[in-house]
Amino acid sequence: MIFKTLVLGDVVGRPGREVLERQLPAFIQKEGIHFVVANGENASGGSGITPEVAKKLFACGLDIITTGDHVWKKKEITQLLEAEPRVLRPTNYSPMALGKGWTVVESHAGIPVGVINLLGRVFMQPIDCPFRAVDEVLKELSKKAKVIIVDMHAEATSEKIAMGWYLDGRVSAVVGTHTHVQTADERILPNGTAYITDLGMTGPYKSVLGRDIDKVLKAIITQMPTRFDVAEKDVRMSGAIITIDSSTGKALEIKRLVLHDSN
To answer: Among all residues, which ones are annotated catalytic?
Structure first.
């Protein structure tokens, strides 16, 4: 079966949520999407995620929400990770941390889909090795699903690319998140893994990575602490559509997506 997955970059604040509410259901229908994954670690006020916000995102059509280094920003995350297995935190956090870093969900087409959430280490806070962590997960996950999507949430381009090559042929796709800037390097690697260094941002593009331009400039120029409010204008839904052969788990095509909000 030809299986189409939509993977979306970091959802930023209310503008990011609202563009999904307005655009995603019709887009899923139009494009024949079978499964949707989005990074939601900035979905609540621009940093963190709450149960209420996760519920709204799932109502838009998301099947899995991944996160990253901002996952712990809201105290409500404890309740969310305990109650909602479709919200992941990076699997290379301590095994004593709340929540799960990977899961298998049956898609609307009846195909089991594995999703793994990883966090990079270069220019980031100390954390366990994502390469060793993903090896351990795949020992179990590869027995349960052929279609496997990896969200590599990382700062360094080189670390994301390295993970793509490391997992080539072992997963269906490795997609990068975190930098909020979409890259133009989408490709199918030699052994059948779709790859892109960063999916971009689902949120306001008249901004500095989703934040109010004037507030960010003030902080940079004055070096004074400044609240970075979420921007509001030029909202877009960004990510990629990945077409996969569900019988083999190999990717057939990856297409970048930037959808401007019509509102």
So the answer is: 70
